[in-house]
């Protein structure tokens, strides 16, 4: 099954062509790594997939289909609910985006929005996600401490745990290890490898060695086009 399919995808924002004639297919459960120089369109492609680009300002043409939540949808169709879409297509940014509050709040607040369940059930799902992100052992004894008190590497793994807690079908990652130390990078890569076969991953990386370690499929962009 194909999780992400683009055919002749073009994206124009305020008169500027950002992506031009992109055609690719990412099978479900595989890890695709996007490479290319800065400004080549990698982040734009990620933002297009979960509709972070303003629909009123961007022109999207060609074919873009995602297989999520048991159905096929086009992110920029008028009938597509962007809130629902972003629950099924998660995103981890290069810089950690924390919610105000504690470590636990960063997972429990979004979980309460999308899942019914007892406090114990939600706490269990929080622990599962933190373990999957290889950060549980470092935060288990201080879940009520401010999330901002964590190190940069721990904050990024917390953001990864928050995304995983919602069990997305597709996870987009924009250079998630770019500012991390080697130990944190290894921990994040271990988490991503463990998702192979369960979640479709599209990862932006400037690290050729990382791409070689992780990629089932490599996609290189140059000037908004496939190279």
Keywords:
single chain, 227 residues, 29% strand, six-stranded mixed beta sheet, four-stranded antiparallel beta sheet, alpha/beta, Rossmann fold, globular, 10 strands
Written description of the protein model:
The mean pLDDT is 94. The strands form 2 sheets. Strands 6-7-8-3-9-10 form a 6-stranded mixed beta sheet, with helices on both faces. Helix 4 packs across helix 6 (152-165). It is an alpha/beta fold and 227 residues long. It starts with a strand and ends with a strand. It has helices at 42-49, 82-88, 103-114, 119-132, 136-139, 152-165, 182-194, 208-214, and strands at residues 2-13, 16-27, 31-35, 58-68, 71-73, 89-92, 170-174, 200-204, 217-222, 225-226. It is built from 8 helices and 10 strands. Helix content is 35%, strand content 29%. It has a single domain, classed as P-loop containing nucleotide triphosphate hydrolases (Rossmann fold).
The domain tally reads 1
Query: How do the helices and strands follow one another from N- to C-terminus?
Result: EEEHEEHEHHHHEHEHEE
At the first level of CATH, what is the class?
Alpha Beta
Give the spatial strand order of the biggest sheet.
6-7-8-3-9-10
CATH superfamily: P-loop containing nucleotide triphosphate hydrolases
The CATH architecture classification is: 3-Layer(aba) Sandwich
Distance between the termini: 25 Å
Which structural class do you get from the secondary structure elements?
alpha/beta
Overall mean pLDDT stands at 94
Runs with pLDDT <50, length 5+?
Answer: none
Helix coverage percent: 25-40%
Give the overall form.
Answer: globular
Number of discrete helical segments: 8
Number of strands: 10
Give me the CATH fold name.
Rossmann fold
* Percent in strands: 25-35%
Specify the biggest β-sheet.
6 strands, mixed
Rg, alpha carbons: 17 Å
